[in-house]
Amino acid sequence: RAGMAGPLRAVARRVAGNLLSRPVDVCSRANLGTAAAASHLDDDRKGLFALPGLHEPSDFARLARRAVARSDDLMRGLVSSGPSGFPHRSATAVIDDLDEISDTLCAVVDVAELCRNVHPDLRWVRAAENAYVELQGYVQGLNSNRGLYLALVNAQERHGAELSPEAARVALTLRQDFERGGIHLGGDEHARLEKTAGDVIKLGMAFQQNLSDPKALGHMDVSWLRLGGVPAGLLSSTAEGGSRDTGFARVPLDQRTVSAVLRYADEPDTRRSIYLAAHSGPEANRAVLDGLLRARHESAKILGFESHAHFATSPLLAEHPDAPRALLERMASECRDRAGEEIEAMLRLAGRDGMDGTVRGWDRSYLIGKARAKACELDAAAVASYFPLERVISGVGALVDRVFGVKLTEVAMEPGENWHAKVRKLRVTSGDRGAGEGQEIGTIYLDLEPRPRKFPHAAHFVIRCSRGVGPDKQRPAVALVCNFGAGSAATLSHSEVETFLHEFGHAMHSVLSDTQYQHLSGTRCAMDMVEIPSHLFEYFAWDPAVLGLLARHRVTGEPMPREMIARLRASKELFGATDLQQQCMFALTDLEVHALDPATLTEGSVSDVAARVQAAHSLMRVEPGTSWELRFGHLVGYASTYYSYPYAKCVAADLWGKFFREDPLAPGAGEALREGMLRHGGAREPGAILRDMLGDGALITDHVGAA
């Protein structure tokens, strides 16, 4: 999507390298929280997102206070039993209590993060935002609590032999996060760090909000006559402010609409106008991104790192930004010749359509679609007719049953649990392999259709982590958030099926995690590991046996013909190099802008870096006046670690080849992935996981030529 820096990692999605927020008076908060909790009758009825007590927007503030009060109680117990009082507490009890603090806070923070991104009611959104920022500030206070740190160090250094391997890894990662969070800093430096950390939180939120705010994104009024080829369903949904009577459609510049127009509009001038308008903003993000990069750089310098890129990569498999940089540059270089051939193929197979011999930014998606259709005799609408949404969901259920031995069952929401009428709830239970048949494993919510102000991309949000063992185990819950329906909400394009499977890979990582501690559950693992299961799942979208489960004609119920499957698979190979170049360009830009020295930043510096990277590592022409980075939300969410996407492609290819290619539906294939990777989350060292599954060559420094 998991993992903000800081020992308690109170965050729902992957926001690598963001330090937590502002200073906090822990004692005064404790008094306020305890008094507030005592004055309110606890409501344990499950509410929104199945969180007990969340029934009204105002409940966010109450639940946040209660989480603070509970955490303060645990914190005081840990601090009071420091080195002198330690004999009364086991090392395991110290780790258990630290994880309890983390789980208590994440129960509210994770729900707040999801709510502020998906809830249609602005009252809920604002309440969630306030709770999110408040609790992140509280966490920053805990991260700087030297008593907690000393209790942890004492447990690890003097009594580490008592710890289980997983508890020892929790202790190791907690200590690293304390130290990377500035526990060693003096008063003035620590105050500066807390200030910049708070800025990172607020600026990151502002950047993402601008990507879902219709006013910030803007719109274009386009003649209906110039929108030929664009799916009728999309046109009708974007026509607010325009009509057939006036002769124009008001086209919003959100990601979903822009992507659909660039993919389907037959008129080159229409694509050009929409592309240039969309990629010149949102202008508000220019200053926001500049401030975000400055704040991250200052935080990294305070902590003794050369840049944020050095800070973010130091605890990961990469260890240093030069490792992913070398990987990305080599991947982009090695696929350059093939990318040139693909661009020529776009022009040739699409009949050049008035092109001047080059592919412009606004032509790429359209020409790829036309070229694939022509080369492989594929009609996108005909392919989509075999992917009705209901069939895809049931097919994914059959897939995970065959591969992992788990069952998906749609169940009704409890009163007050749902945030939108079209959201669905899947219960995950163990299948009929061995003991525990029918035992509930977790919950997956599906929020798949677009609506105003909803998170504009596809993402996996953690609601609740797996924690503990036995009958009292805390069962995980996640939400898959997508914006499907460029043509019809009833059917998916094949690329949307691939996206859905990508996000389902994240869901399986979370739901099948089997860890004692939620701190390292599921996707709360190293950033350069987190995308591997999701990229592996994309392969299922192209496999003939799996397509037999996923694809049935929406009217006749007939399976997708073998000839169509063969043509679809052939189309995958057509433009892999240009796709890979684009991913390398995104990842290199992410690294380079986070290596900038703010002292040299000017108003156009970030755009200059993005343009320079594109010119050096992509055959797509840089369009003057555009700033695509202002729409690239992963600069917030991944922050120097977007390289994990192309790296995950390399590792996923090896995993698929070793375990799935011969028979992707074989039970043994899924067991190897589940037992070797998914169940561990972050509880095993990531290098050990990869070496055990793939051998020593899986590590990033040895995998440069994997593309």
Q: What features would you describe in this structure?
A:
This protein has 707 residues and is mainly alpha-helical. The protein is 53% helix and 6% strand. The strands form two sheets. The chain has a five-stranded mixed beta sheet with strand order 3-4-5-7-6. A two-stranded antiparallel ribbon has the order 1-2. Helix 19 packs antiparallel against helix 20. It is globular, with a radius of gyration of 25 Å.
Mean pLDDT across residues: 87
The termini sit apart by 23 Å
Main beta-sheet strand count, sense and barrel state: 5 strands, mixed
- Structural class, judged by helices and strands? mainly alpha
Poorly predicted regions: 1-41, 701-707
Helices, by number, come to 28
Strand content: 5-15%
Calculate Rg over CA atoms. 25 Å
Number of strands: 7
Large-scale geometry: globular
Give the neighbour order of strands across the main sheet: 3-4-5-7-6
What is the helix content? 40-55%
